[in-house]
UniProtKB/TrEMBL annotation:
This is ABC transporter permease. The chain crosses the membrane at residues 21-40, 60-93, 114-141, 174-195, 202-222, 256-275. Keywords: Membrane, Transmembrane, Transmembrane helix. PANTHER family: INTEGRAL MEMBRANE PROTEIN-RELATED, MEMBRANE PROTEIN.
Length: 282
């Protein structure tokens, strides 16, 4: 009960900061722009070419389900990572900068307990943010093209292709995909959280996280590294796309998330060690 009360207080503090809401506003604007682009003739031409080239009916698979999938795959890793790094990089470093940590640690709470509460709050923010983007993106797409139609999934890089012609299985796969993205994005928040525990400014924690993420993405796309792409963090984070395969390969997905879970635990422990060694009295 004490943990839940402290977690509720931490979440209230996290959502009281204006920068926590910047991501919500940015994604709503982006979703609106994507829907406008898809509604425009050039956007429809691209989708028609993609769908009909694979032998399917454009009028049926050009749907809110397909547009929502495209929003999720194009935007979350690039735009979402900025806001996850911003919030998680701020959560400890900003409190130190404001001088609050000395007061907090004067209370009967261990440093481990304090970090567990802050890390849990950041993980909840990350996961719920992804769900918000999925739901708001789908509702926005429905308002423009309606709810009818099937789901068309084509992701050449991860070698995933699938079509769902009924709403029930299609929306279930979209829901599973959103859960998968939410779990994947926690790795970005974990990395930023680790840097936030160091003796650095909040902005530096955010920039370091994004720098590592983008270097990983760039190197992964080099032809020389193509045989080793499975060892890149961003490739593992993209394994949520496998949840759209007609026959889900749970061992493959479990392996990816065990890998990411191990990384998250390592980032937390490194952050904890750095935090334990810091002197907050001076």
């Amino acid at each position: 009960m004490m943990f839940l009360r402290q977690l509720r207080g931490e979440l209230r503090k996290l959502f009281a900061r204006p920068r926590t809401y910047m991501g919500y506003g940015a994604f709503l604007v982006m979703e609106l722009l994507i829907v406008i682009v898809y509604k425009a003739s050039n956007g429809q031409h691209y989708m028609r070419d993609l769908i009909e080239r694979n032998g399917y009916v454009f009028e049926f698979f050009y749907s809110s389900l397909t547009i929502t999938f495209m929003m999720m795959i194009w935007s979350m890793l690039l735009l979402g990572s900025i806001f996850f790094a911003l919030v998680a990089g701020d959560v400890v470093a900003k409190e130190y900068e404001d001088g609050n940590l000395r007061l907090v640690l004067a209370r009967p709470i261990s440093r481990l307990g304090l970090l567990v509460i802050k890390y849990t709050a950041v993980a909840i923010y990350t996961f719920t943010f992804v769900l918000f983007v999925g739901i708001s993106g789908y509702l926005m797409a429905v308002s423009v093209v309606g709810w009818e139609g099937g789901l068309f999934v084509a992701e050449p890089k991860m070698k995933v292709f699938a079509v769902y012609d009924t709403w029930g299985p299609a929306i279930t796969r979209l829901g599973l995909g959103a859960v998968g993205i939410g779990l994947s994005m926690i790795t970005i928040s974990s990395l930023a959280f680790m840097f936030s525990c160091f003796r650095i400014k909040p902005a530096a924690a955010t920039i370091l996280t994004l720098a590592i993420l983008f270097v990983d993405m760039i190197l992964q796309n080099f032809p020389f590294f193509r045989p080793y792409e499975e060892w890149f963090v961003t490739w593992r984070m993209s394994c949520w796309v496998y949840l759209f395969e007609p026959d889900i390969s749970w061992p493959k997905i479990t392996e990816a998330y065990v890998f990411l879970g191990g990384l998250n635990f390592t980032f937390f422990m490194v952050g904890l060690i750095a935090f334990q060694m810091r002197d907050f009295k001076t």
